[in-house]
Amino acid sequence: MIRTLSGATLKAAQPIKDIITTRRLHSTYDVAVVGGGIVGLATVRELILRHPSLSFVLLEKEKELAVHQSGHNSGVIHSGIYYTPGSLKARLCVRGATLAYEYCDKKGLPYKKCGKLIVALEQEEIPRLRALYERGMKNNVRDLSIVDAKGIREREPFCRGIMALDSPYTGIVDWRMVALRYGQDFEEAGGTVVTESEVNDISMVTESPAGSTEGMKYPIAIRDKKGNEVRCRYVLTCGGLYSDRLSQISGCSREPRIVPFRGDYLVLKPEKHYLVKGNIYPVPDPRFPFLGVHFTPRMDGSVWLGPNAVLAFKREGYKVYDFNVRDFADALLFRGLQRLVMKNLSYGIGEMYRGIFIGAQVKILQKYIPELSLSDVLRGPAGVRAQALDRDGNLVDDFVFDGGVGDVGSRVLHVRNAPSPAATSSLAIAEMVADEVESRFAL
Ligand SMILES: Cc1cc2nc3c(=O)[nH]c(=O)nc-3n(C[C@H](O)[C@H](O)[C@H](O)COP(=O)(O)OP(=O)(O)OC[C@H]3O[C@@H](n4cnc5c(N)ncnc54)[C@H](O)[C@@H]3O)c2cc1C
């Protein structure tokens, strides 16, 4: 059960039972974290474990935790191959994967180290595949090797390709289950989780709370849409698809902006699961590293194919016809998106086409597994990526953490861009953000 800001109790539907215990809600806290996805939960957990004598609250707008990106993803434990050496993504993914495996072992959470092949189909892809290998080695990814066509067939008997990068350290896990376990650790350490609290104002106050004897110890007021308020000393936001709006309401910069891209998956019919053993990925196009359909086995035994990437008309819209006027207008009027569309129109149309006509998607997948046919697949679930864009239409690739200016800005830290592989990296991001919180704020 979870206590909300208004005091009502809610039943949380979660795979791990009794994850959140009932706890009395105070109105003042040392630190408030907004956003109960895997990044917010990992970070608030890390903070309370480091500072058990401080008080922490996590505010989440939904009834349940981790239901957006953290509950709608491919479920892969990435090993850190793709990312620019020295970037936050590279460092935090490699460390995050190790920490994730250790954490799952310690808590008894199931995962499978089923590996991953990045498969080259054409000669022209081989230089890029070799460059990826070099990159992975620079990033200290474990156990990488290059295999030939025979090596591919030994690992994936139904997969065709001329050469592949083999990453046996890559795995799969249910990231939502992991996120909820972080939440349980947080609760057990004395933290408070409040759901159904959509924060829409973060500001400095000039008066102490009614009846308070502590003066201005808690100068930040966080208000939600229902008019409830908590006071705190410091705020961290981890808002995923709403990270730009959370920055804006605290007086910080709105940029980089978030543009939502929906990815629709196909699923393999159960009688065809034998076709796929581990993760099978294409050699990525360097211009769009997150595009390119892949084959991903899931912890429940199913196999997902895809996803594509199309502009979503609603930030948390998982269906094709989901539409929100503000989200749509925001995206369309943003110069960064207009420029991105102009530069990549044919790509965008191709992605939309493949979303509508799944036969076109299957054609691409058949290049890797020729035995696959249209009748072997069904339409599956979807996820929405929070894609950060700058004004010039460039995708913001790396993780971005940012504070602000002025009275509120000096007490706020925003996780502004935490795209894939942020689930894999979550425990490493949490360490880094906790270090940053400690250096910026006088905890
Ligand atoms: C299709 C897809 C596939 C992916 N595959 C993988 C993968 O295989 N491996 C991997 O490592 N990563 C993957 N990722 C990336 C990963 O899922 C995300 O990077 C990660 O979940 C981000 O976590 P988050 O906590 O930042 O965001 P979210 O999980 O979106 O959480 C943000 C939370 O903030 C809350 N919130 C927002 N605004 C407010 C407000 N005003 N008040 C209160 N609460 C608010 C939201 O309700 C939400 O719960 C994938 C992502 C997608 C979309």
Automatic annotation (TrEMBL):
Origin: domain of life: Eukaryota
Domain (FAD dependent oxidoreductase): give its ranges: 30-435
Q: Which SUPFAM superfamilies match?
A: FAD/NAD(P)-binding domain (SSF51905)
A GO molecular function assigned to this protein is:
(S)-2-hydroxyglutarate dehydrogenase activity
List the PANTHER family hit by this protein, alphabetically: L-2-HYDROXYGLUTARATE DEHYDROGENASE, MITOCHONDRIAL
**Assigned protein family:** Belongs to the L2HGDH family.
Output this protein's name. L-2-hydroxyglutarate dehydrogenase, mitochondrial
Species whose genome carries this gene: Zoarces viviparus (Viviparous eelpout)
